[in-house]
Amino acid sequence: MQKSHAKEHGPPEAAGSFALDTFLDGIWKENPVFVHLMGMCPLLAVSNSVVNAVAMGLSTLFVLVNSNTVVSLIRRWVPGQVRIPTFVLVIATFVTVTEFLLQAISLEVHAALGPFVPLIVVNCIILGRAEAFASRNPVLPSILDGLGTGLGFLLAIFLMGAFRELLGAGAFLGMDVFGPDFEPWVVLILPSGGFFTLGVLMLGVNWINQRAKRRPAHAHAVHTPREAA
Amino acid sequence: MNTDSLAYVFLNATLVNNFVLMLFLGICPFLGVSGNFKTAPRMGVAVTFVMVISASAAYGIHELLTALNLRYLELIAYIAVIAATVQLVEMFIRKVSPPLYRSLGVFLPLITTYCAILYVALFQTARGYTYLHSVVFALGAGLGFTLAIGIMSGMREEIDLADVPAMVKGTSMTLLVAGMLSLAFMGFGGLGGG
């Protein structure tokens, strides 16, 4: 996030690559989940199957892009003291829209996600991006930033969902994968499995980053994540 | 046990469906503030306080909006009330205990975005709890949160002294420990929750 601020005043000829970077950063280097540890609650709670995980990821992506757009549009007219409540109201409006949309598309998925659809309001990724990026940047980069960050979240929650459904139920998207002899690891579907899966995923991300750090030839291309809190 | 009794609502919110370990609500403060055994329980008390106040307010809002037939504004109204409550608590703590105010730091205003608090408001509406039930539910949920974050902070202080591989250090370790704690809390399922 801090990186994006510094870039804001970059030379104008770099505008194209800046836009691309804004988009790509959200997916891996500045991944909201793996690097910034944001949006943990929905990530752990609704990742017990691929369908739920993807529905949650897409809903969050939708709200994030829309709220970033609106926040960026109104950024000049919002006084500093009331900006957070304003952003929250914008987000809450889009979440209400999402909830009705989801209900119209699939009642089943809406029921499975339960209270976690209205709880998108308090997903810190969305408020974080509104505050750190959209309130300081023009509309187009803000949309790209929302898309990138949203896809980063989608990637993380999809990985969680795929891992938990594959091993916890022996299935993928509800289809049997391992055949009838497979004994499902029920613990992964249970709440504690969410913590375990995320712990293991974090371990994997640490491993990849540490390996990358050890190769100095590519050091310039490697982003060092801030020390996890 | 009668599912409408106050004791059931309280126990269910505290142990059986512990907010942090069973429902994954309030994970951000759980991971962020649980590093220190001294501040963690205080954070829990602040969260409980906000929960109880916003639960009472949410009950009133729900009655009002239902009477006016404006149910679709519920979410927006709830979050506005929670933001105001947090502001109030922040001013109160700053006045009464400046050291606590400093130790909680940025996590205090962030209470606004804790899903646990909004969930209390949404859940009591969905269940149609009476005023008394709502307050007891909020108290139980807050106590459960305090319990979880207290246990976690004690364990993390011990882990800091232990020799763990560099790869697992930090968040990864915390999450694995939280998973085991969550497994242990599943034992309370026998109390008759669901």
Give an account of the 3D structure.
The complex is a heterodimer of chains A (about 230) and B (about 190). Chain A has helices spanning about 1-5, 15-25, 40-45, 50-75, 85-105, 105-115, 125-135, 140-170, 190-215; strands at about 170, 175. Chain A is mainly α. Chain A has one domain (about 15-220). In chain A, helix 4 (about 50-75) packs antiparallel against helix 8. Chain A is globular, with a radius of gyration of 19 Å. Mean pLDDT of chain A is about 80; it is low at about 1-15 and about 220-229. With about 190 residues, chain B is mostly helical. Chain B has one domain. Chain B contains 8 helices and no strands. In chain B, helix 1 (about 5-15) packs parallel to helix 7, helix 3 runs antiparallel to helix 4 and helix 4 (about 75-95) packs across helix 6. Chain B is globular and about 60 Å long. Classes of the chains: A mainly alpha (about 230), B mainly alpha (about 190). Chains A and B meet through helix 3, helix 5 and helix 9 of A and helix 2, helix 4, helix 6 and helix 8 of B.
List the helices and strands and how they pair.
The complex is a heterodimer of chains A (229) and B (194).
Chain A: H1 2-7, H2 15-27, H3 40-45, H4 50-73, H5 83-105, H6 107-113, H7 124-134, H8 139-169, E1 171-172, E2 175-176, H9 191-214
Antiparallel strand pairs in A: 1-2
Chain B: H1 6-16, H2 27-32, H3 39-68, H4 74-96, H5 98-104, H6 115-127, H7 131-161, H8 171-185
Helix pairs in contact in B: 1-7, 3-4, 3-6, 3-7, 4-5, 4-6, 6-7
Summarize the structure.
The complex is a heterodimer of chains A (229) and B (194). Chain A is mainly alpha-helical. Helix content of chain A is 63%, strand content 2%.
Which labels suit this protein?
heterodimer, A: 229 residues, 2% strand, globular, B: 194 residues, 8 helices, 70% helix
- Total strands of chain B: 0
Dominant shape of chain B: globular
Oligomer: heterodimer
Detail the poorly predicted runs of chain B: none
Q: Unreliable segments of chain A (pLDDT under 50, ≥5 consecutive)?
A: 1-14, 218-229
- Our count of domains of chain B comes out at 1
Helicity of chain B, as a percent range: over 70%
Query: Considering DSSP H and I runs of 4 or more, what fraction of the residues of chain A is helical?
Result: 55-70%
Give the overall silhouette of chain A: globular
**Elements of chain B, N to C (H/E):** HHHHHHHH
Rg of chain A, Cα atoms, Å: 19 Å
Largest sheet of chain B: none
The DSSP helix count of chain A reads 9
Beta fraction of chain A: under 5%
Strand order within the widest beta sheet of chain A: 1-2
Largest interface: A-B, 42 and 42 residues
Beta-strand percent range of chain B: under 5%
Briefly note the structural class of the backbone of chain B. mainly alpha
